[in-house]
Amino acid sequence: MLMTFGIISLNINGVIAVAGRQILSEWKAELKTEVKKDDQHQSLQYHLTRLVGGEDRTKLETTGFACDNTSWSLVCITNNPVKIDMSTMHVHLQSSYPDHKSANENTTTTTIVRPYAMQENPWVMNDITPVIITTTEPTQLTCDHNHKHPAVIFSSGGYTGNIFHEFNENLLPLFITTRMFKSHVHFIVVDHKPSFIYKYRRVFSRLSNHEIINPLNDSSVHCFPSVITGLKYHKFLGINTSENPQNSYSMPDFRDFIRQTYKLKTQSIFDNLNGSDPPSLLLISRQTTRKFLNQQEMVKMMEELGFRVIIASSADEMSNVEKFSHVINSCSVMVGAHGAGLANEMFLPDGAVMVQVRPLGFQWDVDSFYSAPAPGMGLEYLEYMMQPDESSLVDEYGLDHPILQDTASVAAEGGYDAARKMYLDKQDLRLNLSRFRETLIEALRLVGRYKDVANA
Questions:
Q1: In percent, how much of the chain has pLDDT > 90?
Q2: pTM of the prediction?
Q3: Given 3-state DSSP classes, what are the helix, strand and coil percentages for the chain, each rounded to the nearest 5?
């Protein structure tokens, strides 16, 4: 049955309050043990209900099952015991609420959830393994494994392998959904990708004290006191504190969590500001599309302005999060053309500057992806808008062609796919160094190093 808060509780100072009196917890060792166990159960129920709101919260409290379908995501919660058949990914609800069954005892309620954070992405959802949540109570389904902590079911499918989507649709939603449980949860990962799990193993181990369960390698029945199916999603690379349980977690909290997870030393670029050391600039150098055709000249200019330039171009190097995060964390400025690599801003210290070079003709969601999230991370954001003569498309079409002078016409005729193919997949960049220099000087101003630029 649903537990409610009693008259015995722990306050924030570690003191037990009993019927209006306070007793130091160490004076009553036997009472402390009893309250701690009860408080854990109450806390679990409390946290589960905070994952849904309004009528859904009332439904969860009265029936033991409810789904929240807001802000792109779909999250279903049961705060009653469940049996999960890993071979079929059927979650069998075991309700102890008399109101949970309908008047017709044979009626079965079934909910299908594809547990991916961004439910509105049609290019992904069809490939996500469905989880069937049902009120059926099949015979001969016994528990092979009994667990005392809740399960969280999510998919590592979709766009994993792309750092933007890994943070946007996996790691951030996982943090939002599970951080309040203090690692007392079991992760069940459908569409299990070993490379993704290994890449972020430190993150997973800090959010859960248990080994990840992979249904592809486990056909047994696991029983849990409750289950969360799906992850809560707020916005691109961000957290809406007002939507979060208890208003307790924010983007700075997530950034602190990441810094602690990877033992990143620099919290702010101003912590150890030494005027004698050149500021470090990380240049994300793409090797396929949106390459900087005059990169050598760009680097020379950056060094003349006083930057120590670090060039990141190896996919293998950048995929090693444990090492590459330390490189990024040592930098004051990061520069790159629009693309997933800019999501490495997550590892920059507070006060650092992220400079996005916007490709010609492709502006869809660029603000949502990087410029809008930056302030929430404690970062400064600058952008460099390409002009037609800076695009490699000039070489093929000529400067006066509509592809360069009327970029909106490409999308108007062929839609998103045509625009993406032309301006993201086919275009390289040849920056005007005089114009781009002004952007870098502004970056120096923002990191407090403008005084080092002679005759700027």
A1: 70
A2: 0.86
A3: 40, 20, 40
